[in-house]
Amino acid sequence: MRVKPIEFYIQNLRYTVRSAIEKDAKNLSEVRLQIDGETENLDREKGEAYIDESGFKQIIKDDTESISNLFLVAEVNEKIVGFSRCEGNKLKRTSHKVEFGVCVLKEYWGYSIGKNLLKESVNWADLNGIKKITLNVLEANDKAIMLYKKYGFEVEGVLKQDKILSDGNYYNTILMGRFNG
């Protein structure tokens, strides 16, 4: 599904949150690879589960055609600096929910880009009859957990020793959900 673009101006940075379009595919592939190498808060290390330009073109096409998917990008000066996805499915028993994920280039942390991608995704879900949004977050990502709670997400469970990070330690994954209605 597509949404109307929204402009933000925060701390002298102007950016747009909008639906992903086909011409974003190459930039998305590059940005995702870079972000994976900048943080351990995501599931992948740099280069793992790589999605190339044609892979992103297919994801964008599928998400645009699906009423239960939303693919948003944050753009600064025609360059994508972050993105988020809400992904639903066609199974009747779980058709009321979507899974949310978000990532932002480290250089652009602190400009509320992740927050605004989340906010627009929540608004879209509420307006389109989505009853539940789920997400996974690393237990050490306190800032993200606080943000999710601020937008109505609650902890639903914990996957113990779910990820091993570069320090050699195991970390829990927090499962969170937000209910509408």
Automatic annotation (TrEMBL):
Q: Which SUPFAM superfamilies match?
A: Acyl-CoA N-acyltransferases (Nat)
Q: Could you tell me which InterPro entries the record lists for this protein?
A: Acyl_CoA_acyltransferase, GNAT_dom
- Which part of the chain is the N-acetyltransferase domain? 15-177
Q: Which GO terms describe its molecular function?
A: acyltransferase activity, transferring groups other than amino-acyl groups
Query: Could you name the domain of life of the organism this protein comes from?
Result: Bacteria
| One Pfam family from the record | Acetyltransf_1
Question: Which PANTHER family does the UniProt entry name for this protein?
Answer: GNAT-FAMILY ACETYLTRANSFERASE, SPERMIDINE N(1)-ACETYLTRANSFERASE
Q: What is this protein called?
A: N-acetyltransferase
